[in-house]
Amino acid sequence: MAWDTSQYLILTRQKNNHLSEFSPSTSVVNKRMETLGYNSDNFNSVQSRTSDQDMVEIAGSTLNSSSTDDCDLGCETPEEGTRAVNGGPKLVDLLDEPVPGVGTYEDFNTIDWVRETSKDRDRHREIVGKSKESTWELIKSIVDGLSGWLLMLLVGLMSGALAGGIDISAHWMTDLKEGVCLSGFWFNHEHCCWTSNQTTFQDQDHCPQWKSWAELIIGSRTGSFAYFTNYLMYVCWALLFSFLAVSLVRTFAPYACGSGIPEIKTILSGFIIRGYMGKWTLMIKTITLVLAVSSGLSLGKEGPLVHVACCCGNILCYLFTKYRKNEAKRREVLSAAAAVGVSVAFGAPIGGVLFSLEEVSYYFPLKTLWRSFFAALVAAFTLRSINPFGTSRLVLFYVEFHSPWHLLELAPFILLGIFGGLWGALFIRANIAWCHRRRTTRLGHYPVLEVLVVTAVTAVLAFPNDYTRVSTSELISELFNDCSLLDSSELCDHGNATGGQAGGGPASRNLAVTMLQLSLALVFKVVITIVTFGIKVPSGLFIPSMAVGAIAGRLMGVGMEQLAYYHHDSVLFRGWCSSGADCITPGLYAMVGAAACLGGVTRMTVSLVVIMFELTGGLEYIVPLMAAAMTSKWVADALGREGIYEAHIRLNGYPFLEAKEEFRHKTLARDVMRPRRGEPPLSVLTQDGMTVSDAQALISNTTYSGFPVVLTPESQRLVGFVQRRDLVISIESARKRQEGVAGASCILFAEYTPPPPPSSPAPLKLRGIMDLSPFTVTDHTAMDIVVDIFRKLGLRQCLVTHNGRLLGIITKKDILKHMAQMANRDPDSIFFN
């Protein structure tokens, strides 16, 4: 069975009884299912296993509006309207008695930001008003105000603890591919040799307590047979780890695959994906992330850690009523959790806050900024207390360069920025093309086989090269390293006359071989990362992108170092680089290259620079990092406006309105609204002229997510808007709670209702579920204004009027399809509403 996140969403969406407005037809989806190799029985079993606590909690809140409409003769007061008439059953007003489920949302739909914000504002007013009545209510109001900070504390503690466990486990399992510690199998290679007094300067990585698999199996660690044994064990462990990872993801939590950042961006914009941040997803993603990183695949754990932190935030929201019952408030917590994820991934709390603000969040008020900072601080403190790297430092790649950079070095730094932009644009196009091919061919029918093949190719090609055999984090750390006299790295083997290993001398033969290995590693990383990102295991892109840039930067740094050594009297180096001096720092070039490539792929700028100097501790190198990051973004934007996460959002068809994308076309609202010329008229409800049977027939015959309410079908005068889900739940609830409700019962949306005749069934008053102030625009409103309204207010739909008469409706999906059509893209690629 083939699946990916977007396909799983499509199939789950089709299982619901009530489809969202303008959703794909059943025949189209069934055709996609057959093309992609889905089996309904298998899908049902997968979906039943992922039905963990979803993002939408049944809430009892409703809109409480009190504006008045025109009424016919015979209007009564509200008291008279709700009194039993002529001995008949009591008329239940759902405005006074909230119905559980009203005000919530279906899966794969967009929340109403305005309604959620209004609901929270009303709740806050009620709490403030009651706080003046008694001391107990005052205490409750104080606790309510502190609940947000307490939630941030819990999110930081939980995310920091999980990240520390992931780091320790991944380091141990990565070393397990090469050997085991006899003094304690739970020690990784570095910890195993810490207490050993028998290590040498030339062979620092070997100690009697650590045994390679060749030593354990054949009793020797040298020779061709020992090399082949280690090679075979390396490949076998990698295949085992990747098989366990993909099997767990496929069986228990399909949402645990991938990076998670594209989906989190979509969820933070208001989209509902139930189960994507549930407890099963958290548990499986945490376990499989360790397995995927340990397998040696070209992926990182930093992106998935953002998903893990958001899962923690979502689960902990259920402890607090105001976050459990309000989707907008919950997304404030998720924005802070995204900052926590980056904080624990890189040890960069400030960079995490800026990352959430710049890259992920859709709505980021000032109080969310403060709370994000606090949560990131708590998470970083927790991670530092665990000390997973054993360095007593929070930073992942601490650097301390021996010489400052010179102004003339900005030229090669800008060249690295150009390389990063080119690499970013190339990677995005190639990866999207590969993912599209995976989804449209038989390649995507066998996700487990694909993961195993990619793992086998990666392991077989990586082992012979010392710079691809080690984990990507260790590779970056070595590339960032500054050469010193006590450094035994081959990157520092210059063979200078003093016999030391410090940089600045002529390149030795060993260094030339090392540069060849790095060049091969660069080609390998570029190709294999394109294929790896998107397979069905947790996979991040930060570290692989940084590795590509770090290799390219180190190569350029060594080249500049040799150029300075042999041409120190030239115009370029005269005055600041004397003969025999270490003027060039190759590790700095590696750091700048890493920032450039990461910026080219993600299009980050401010947050990227802050993350890099927090990651390395190199505060004085902000200017080179800024120059490379800006150059990388300019070059990449010139070749394509989308970053990797936006490209995957578009590939998966998520309803995401990108705030960075400008709408420059001169179209009007009437060009986009539905219904269009030649289509059936808009399905509407009337204020007091419809029966329960009429409403149920309208629901059965349409797939729209809501219906406008008009005064009469002839006048088309707009009264309000009712969500489909609220209407269905209210009718079902009224049949259970109110006597006499039948198919012939009238549905009333007016404030004042006339008494029903004695022989008629009890009417159903549903004014409480109607939005009395839906957003409207005229048919001559420019679409760029409409797009801005949708972006800034987070609307689900907007009604179009002409001289006060209802003409049509514009949904978020209509805008996305229109923008895709204007950009010469397939408008049917938007799957969800």
TrEMBL record:
InterPro entries, A to Z: CBS_dom, CBS_dom_sf, Cl-channel_core, ClC
Annotated membrane topology: Multi-pass membrane protein
SMART domains: CBS (SM00116)
Signal peptide positions (record): none
Highest taxon listed in the record's lineage: Eukaryota
Keyword Transmembrane included in the entry's annotation: yes
Localization (cell): Endosome membrane; Membrane
Family (UniProt): Belongs to the chloride channel (TC 2.A.49) family.
UniProt name for this protein: Chloride channel protein
Organism: Aldrovandia affinis
